[in-house]
């Protein structure tokens, strides 16, 4: 076995461990002496108490050591990090003997993957005749001059099924925008076109480009996400579909809150002494069951085998969750898609209307669609389906692309792409292994300072990571050294407590049966707890949604209920603009927030963002709430409505999820240790492992000029160490990157 050089972090850990052992030895000696000296039994309890207290102090000291070594547990990543730590604890402390482990595939699943890959192979092997392009005189766009050969072929293939495989940085958005323009220039009615995208921002950008290309004053193409499309269609045809006209949409946090309410109602806290899983975990299981179209039992056996004892109870919660949402006119994200699918499947009249309305459908980011989304658009492999690959990259140099192409080669499922670039600058990626997390942060800081001194702007540099807590040491190094930075992927705007409070008030104005919203705002009031809130909500339901708290006039919290009743009733009128409703409610809400939050004034500034955002909706509260929930504002929107900051040139610290669609000249991907990236949960399942590998691909393809990969030599936690480099790097051909170990 090869000898390893002791790092600064390892030595400090050994010294502290030695000190702790000495303390324990001294404590045992002292307690033993006292016990021998005192023969009276009444002192034994005191001595035992001292011993227990001493052990507690030592355990606490060890806990603090571990916490300091890990950089603490970030509140946002609490659940994910604990999943990682559960995995780490079970590892052998002798990591030098440990190798990469991969999930064992069941035969059925293995056969399924092989079947999918054989279909993909057949599609890729088909030979297609390229279209001959004819530039008509009336075209406003010179397509042949502005597109490469593959892009042009994709643009003009409009009357046959088409699958476009677009690599990162290959001009996919441009191609789709030109394709829509080409359809319009060839006489296709705009209202016959449906553009489904992964985000509303992507849809807006494509339609904006089309409008600009064709110099149109207005554009009438239907565009949006699957969820927004489902929401709009269900509301438009609610009578035909026999569903409620007004319903509220639950995001994942709301869904988890509903589950929490149900757990309370059913008094499900522990089963045979074991605490029932957290609401967020149950929410994930229910959502996965819908998306994969499997039972709760199947999902738990497949994804959460450690929760097998709770199958029966989670199944009950799921049944109650479905009833609850139906009774309170609530739809979660999955319900929107499920409802649309059922309506298209079972209502022939509705299906014919939709089929006749949308003759040309384009789906962006199709690889991200789930089973229900695929069932909605029925993506069977048409015999005449054409496949076009966009492989010319306009972002990265060839050195980076050679590295990312190797990642694609390791995908278990998917179409093969080999990206190439005219930029033959072979600055190949670097893998840098440092002593510990502090050394990693110090290295990154020094590299960025050097880049800055060489004329590179801070804004051209990004640090990307799998989970927010990975950035703790880097952020600390930036603060100490006065390096300006901004973080993406922290607590989202919609997840901020005060914003969720305000949205809850607005949801009640739209749907007074929304028990989740009621529960949230009632618990803000003094002297009202969970039990009282439940009584008040039941009274509202029994009163057919009428807001009247007279039944509680003898209670000490009645005056607070009256104030709440007044502010809600005063803002229910449809003649009041949405922004004014927010302003009015905020006058009532601000004192409540200030009574419990020392930073209330700072948080209330976010209401300006909400008010600014709501103005474009005028009087349409329903659309505002739907859009806000389905496509919440991002940091760029908040920056647009707030005054410019004095320091615009700053390094970006971002989760990889938040970096999708963005690019920087210099990219550092940090904490590339197996068990952190891919994370421990993903390693146990082939599908989640594949998702992590694709996430790594996303991260590496953000780089334009130089890609640097870093990792500490170990990640220590409790009684184990993670030391193996990420398997995603280990899978890459060693001549595609430089190791600096």
TrEMBL record:
Q: Which GO terms describe its molecular function?
A: 3'-5' DNA helicase activity; ATP binding; ATP hydrolysis activity; DNA binding
Which residues are listed as membrane-spanning?
12-39, 45-63
EC category name? isomerase
Which PROSITE patterns does the record cross-reference, listed alphabetically?
UVRD_HELICASE_ATP_BIND, UVRD_HELICASE_CTER
Give the matching Pfam families: UvrD-helicase, UvrD_C
Q: Where is the UvrD-like helicase C-terminal domain?
A: 398-661
Q: What is its EC number?
A: 5.6.2.4
Instruction: Kindly list the GO CC terms recorded for this protein.
Output: cytosol
User: Which UniProt keyword terms apply here?
Assistant: ATP-binding, Helicase, Hydrolase, Isomerase, Membrane, Nucleotide-binding, Transmembrane, Transmembrane helix
Q: Name one GO biological process term.
A: recombinational repair
Concerning its family, UniProt says: Belongs to the helicase family. UvrD subfamily.
Spell out the protein name for this chain. DNA 3'-5' helicase
């Amino acid at each position: 076995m090869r000898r390893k050089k002791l790092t600064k972090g390892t030595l400090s850990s050994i010294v502290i461990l030695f000190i702790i052992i000495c303390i324990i030895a001294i404590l045992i000696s002292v307690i033993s002496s006292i016990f021998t000296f005192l023969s009276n039994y009444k002192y034994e309890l005191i001595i035992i108490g001292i011993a227990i207290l001493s052990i507690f102090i030592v355990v606490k000291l060890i806990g603090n050591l571990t916490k300091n070594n890990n950089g603490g547990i970030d509140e946002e990543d609490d659940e994910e990090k604990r999943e990682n730590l559960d995995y780490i604890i079970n590892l052998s402390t002798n990591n030098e003997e440990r190798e990469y482990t991969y999930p064992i595939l069941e035969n059925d699943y293995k056969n399924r993957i092989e079947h999918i890959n054989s279909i993909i192979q057949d599609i890729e092997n088909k030979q297609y005749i390229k279209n001959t392009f004819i530039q008509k005189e009336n075209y406003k766009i010179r397509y042949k001059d502005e597109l490469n050969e593959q892009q042009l072929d994709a643009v003009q293939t409009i009357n046959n099924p088409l699958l476009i495989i677009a690599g990162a940085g290959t001009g996919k958005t441009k191609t789709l925008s030109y394709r829509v323009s080409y359809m319009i220039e060839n006489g296709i009615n705009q209202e016959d076109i449906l553009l489904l995208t992964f985000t509303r921002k992507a849809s807006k950008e494509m339609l904006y480009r089309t409008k600009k290309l064709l110099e149109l004053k207005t554009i009438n193409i239907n565009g949006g996400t699957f969820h927004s499309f489902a929401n709009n269609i269900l509301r438009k045809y609610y009578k035909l579909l026999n569903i409620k006209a007004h319903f509220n949409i639950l995001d994942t946090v709301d869904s988890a809150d509903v589950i929490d309410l149900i757990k309370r109602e059913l008094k499900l806290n522990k089963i045979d002494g074991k605490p029932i899983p957290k609401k967020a975990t149950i929410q994930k299981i229910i959502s996965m069951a819908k998306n994969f179209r499997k039972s709760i039992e199947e999902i738990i056996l497949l994804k959460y085998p450690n929760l097998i004892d709770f199958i029966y109870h989670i199944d009950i919660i799921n049944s109650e969750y479905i009833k609850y949402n139906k009774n309170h006119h609530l739809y979660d994200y999955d319900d929107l898609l499920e409802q649309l699918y059922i309506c298209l499947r079972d209502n022939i009249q509705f299906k014919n209307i939709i089929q006749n309305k949308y003759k040309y459908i384009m789906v962006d980011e199709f690889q991200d669609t789930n089973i229900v989304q695929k069932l909605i658009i029925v993506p069977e492999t048409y015999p005449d389906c054409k496949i076009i690959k966009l492989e010319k990259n306009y972002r990265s140099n060839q050195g980076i692309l050679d590295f990312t192409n190797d990642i694609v080669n390791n995908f278990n499922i998917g179409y093969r792409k080999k990206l190439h670039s005219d930029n033959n600058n072979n600055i190949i990626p670097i893998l840098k292994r440092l002593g510990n997390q502090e050394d990693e942060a110090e290295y990154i800081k020094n590299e960025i300072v050097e880049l800055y001194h060489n004329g590179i702007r801070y804004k051209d540099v990004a640090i990307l990571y799998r989970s927010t807590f990975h950035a703790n040491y880097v952020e600390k190094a930036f603060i100490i050294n006065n390096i300006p930075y901004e973080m993406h992927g922290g607590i989202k705007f919609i997840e901020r407590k005060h914003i969720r409070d305000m949205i809850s008030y607005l949801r009640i104005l739209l749907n007074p049966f929304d028990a989740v919203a009621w529960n949230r705002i009632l618990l803000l009031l003094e002297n009202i707890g969970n039990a009282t809130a439940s009584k008040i909500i039941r009274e509202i339901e029994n009163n057919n949604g009428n807001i009247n708290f007279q039944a509680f006039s003898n209670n000490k919290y009645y005056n607070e209920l009256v104030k709440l009743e007044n502010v809600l009733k005063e803002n229910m009128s449809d003649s009041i603009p949405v922004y004014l409703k927010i302003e009015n409610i905020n006058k009532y809400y601000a004192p409540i927030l200030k009574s419990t939050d020392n930073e209330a004034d700072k948080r209330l500034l976010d209401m300006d963002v909400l008010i600014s955002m709501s103005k474009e909706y005028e009087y349409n509260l329903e659309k505002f709430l739907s859009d806000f929930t389905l496509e919440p504002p991002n940091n760029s929107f908040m920056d647009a409505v707030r005054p410019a900051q004095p320091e615009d040139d700053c390094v970006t610290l971002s989760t990889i999820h938040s970096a999708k669609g963005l690019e920087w000249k210099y990219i550092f991907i940090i904490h590339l240790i197996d068990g952190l990236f891919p994370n421990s949960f993903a390693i146990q399942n082939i599908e989640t492992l594949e998702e992590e590998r694709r996430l790594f691909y996303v991260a590496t393809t953000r780089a334009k000029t130089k890609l640097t990969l870093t990792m500490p030599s170990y990640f220590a936690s409790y009684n184990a160490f993670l030391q193996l480099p990420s398997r995603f790097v280990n899978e890459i051909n060693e001549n595609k990157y430089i190791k600096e170990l």
